[in-house]
Amino acid sequence: MLYVVIAHDGTSPGTFERRMSVRPAHMANGEKMMSDGSFLFGGAILDGAGKMAGGVLVVDFETRAEIDEWLTNEPYILNKVWERVEVHPFLVPPQFLGLFPKYQEQPTAAG
Q: Best label site of 19, 58, 59, 96, fewest CB within 10 Å?
């Protein structure tokens, strides 16, 4: 099932510096998730000055429990970069299904 994850960085001093020091581990984790199919798309939320202040990710997990397990080990969580994380089931409209081949309608034997 697809989910959208919206993560907001904390605002305490040093959060952006922690983000940048942990970013290589966060990106490596994303690469691993891309190869296993659990991370489909994502990017940074920018603040008014164009500085990274959070992220939006589209992920594919069977259960919410699997998402919670991933988040428990996410470098931005472990290092107190992401302060607030929202997780919502995500429905891709038909015109965008080409971006997510797994979720395209499969032809039936009759069709």
A: 96
Residue given tokens 């015109």 in the structure block: 95
* 10: amino acid identity, one letter: G
C-alpha dihedral, 73 to 24 to 79 to 62, nearest 10°: -20
Asked if residues 111 and 39 have their Cβ atoms less than 8 Å apart, the reply is: no
Q: Note the pTM of the prediction, 2 decimals.
A: 0.87
Task: Indicate if the pLDDT at residue 106 is higher than 60.
Answer: no
Distant-in-sequence contacts of 24-28, Cβ < 8 A, 24+ apart: 25/75, 26/74, 26/75, 26/76
pLDDT tens-digit readout, 88-98: 999 988 888 88
Give the separation between CA 51 and CA 87, rounded to whole angstroms: 23
What is the spatial distance between Cα 2 and Cα 7, in angstroms, rounded to a whole number?
16
CB 70 within 8 A of CB 38: yes
**What pLDDT does 103 receive?**
73
